[in-house]
Amino acid sequence: MILTCFGFKIKNVDSKLLKKRVDGLEEALMEFAHNTERAIQSLPEEVDRLSREMRKFKDEMLTFRRNQEEEWSSIARKMETIVEDLIIPSLRLFLERHFRCHITAEGQRWLRRRVGESYEADALARCEDKVFLLEKSKSFFDFFPGYEGRELLLILGSISFPESVIKYASERGVYVMAWREWEYTDIPNFEEVRS
Q1: What's the pTM value of the predicted model, to 2 decimals?
Q2: Residue 126 buriedness (CB in 10 A; 0-12 / 13-18 / 19+)
Q3: C-beta of residue 174 within 8 angstroms of C-beta of residue 193
């Protein structure tokens, strides 16, 4: 048998073998067509499944993002109060040791309000004749009139201070209270301000 394929003549082709190969090819094409049809029919289900997975992933990412924002917000709030959290627990003992007076009241974030104004003292301690105020003094006696007649001693608290800040605070009569080697608090300008 002579077969013409793409313009070429092929001689001596076994027709049984050719039929067998054509039948095999035809069968393979039919299976491919059947599999393709099944895949096309299942495509909407697959798209739906992927869509559900993407929605679930999106929800998980939104939850993760909210959790991260809450954690960072918590860290930011903690950073705002880190100095208070480090210094205030030792304030009473520290003041009694340095100023040799018995602390009769102490606290942090004392808020006082009057018409249209408010005043927050980050930390406050008092003894019989002195009031110790952590950080700010403007309008103190206006908002805390019960402390009038006591000496107001200002303390600026931080983890550490550059020498220029210590010098500036000393010149203005403000004590600086800082950590020393992460073990204890100290007032590096105690003698300068006291004198």
Answers
A1: 0.54
A2: buried
A3: yes
Domain of 177: which CATH number?
3.40.1350
Token pair for 87: 């210094």
Q: Are residues 56 and 96 in the same domain?
A: no
Please tell me whether residues 148 and 124 are part of one structural domain.
yes
What is the average pLDDT across 160-175? 90
With contact defined as beta carbons under 8 Å apart, do 177 and 185 qualify? yes
Asked whether residue 5 carries a pLDDT value surpassing 60, the answer given is: no
Residues 14 and 106 occupy one common structural domain? no
Where b means 16+ CB within 10 Å and e means fewer, 68-101 reads eeeeeeeeeeeeeeebbebbbeebbebbeebbee
Give every CB contact of residue 108 below 8 A, 6+ residues apart in sequence: 84, 88, 122, 123, 124, 134
Q: Are residues 112 and 151 in the same domain?
A: yes
Tokens coding 2: 């002579």
Contact 179, 188 (CB under 8 A): no
Q: pLDDT by residue (tens digit) across 130-155? A: 998 887 777 888 888 888 889 999 98
Q: Residue 42: CB partners within 8 Å, gap ≥ 6?
A: none
Choosing from 77, 103, 130, the residue where a domain stops is: 77
